[in-house]
Specification:
Blueprint (H helix, E strand, L loop, with lengths): L1 H14 L3 H22 L7 H24 L3 H15 L8 H15 L7 H12 L5 H13 L1
Helix pairs in contact: 1-2, 2-3, 2-4, 3-4, 5-6, 5-7, 6-7
Length: 150
């Protein structure tokens, strides 16, 4: 399981005294444990899909922080967040290229016969299960809006 792999890598990073990696992996395991508590208490064990969802949430937080720190002219903090993001991305599946996302968006729009931007919710509802974990939701939303605006 992915959670066990993260635990094993945490032990290795602690032995190697890799401070940043140890910190990121501890934070990640803490977030996974918090998710498990929210889901069902002490007896709930997160599945690989649950763990991926937690990692994606943490990665999104890092991307948002990088944008905010860059806007606030704090490059040292943005660089730290970028390093953490790189470590988190190791555990995420390969992200789809934009042209592939566009093809799936066009296909989904034609499948449900969406014609206006008002139908974005319907398109996103049909689309997200197809690309869950393989593409950033913000990028997908932007592409859907562009395609529906044509």
């Amino acid at each position: 399981m992915l959670k066990q792999k993260i635990r094993d890598e945490l032990k290795q990073s602690m032995l190697a005294r890799t401070e940043l990696k140890t910190s990121v992996l501890r934070m990640l395991l803490s977030a996974i444990n918090y998710y498990e508590i929210q889901k069902g208490g002490a007896g709930y064990e997160a599945t690989d899909e649950d763990v991926l969802a937690v990692i994606q949430k943490e990665a999104k937080q890092r991307r948002d922080s990088i944008a905010e720190f860059t806007k606030a002219n704090r490059p040292e903090l943005a660089n730290k967040e970028a390093e953490e993001l790189k470590m988190l991305q190791v555990y995420l599946p390969q992200q789809m290229p934009e042209h592939q996302i566009r093809e799936i968006v066009k296909q989904t729009i034609s499948e449900i016969n969406a014609t206006t931007v008002a139908e974005i919710g319907k398109v996103m509802g049909a689309l997200m299960p197809k690309i869950k974990g393989k593409a950033d939701g913000g990028l997908v939303s932007k592409i859907v809006k562009e395609e529906l605006s044509k």
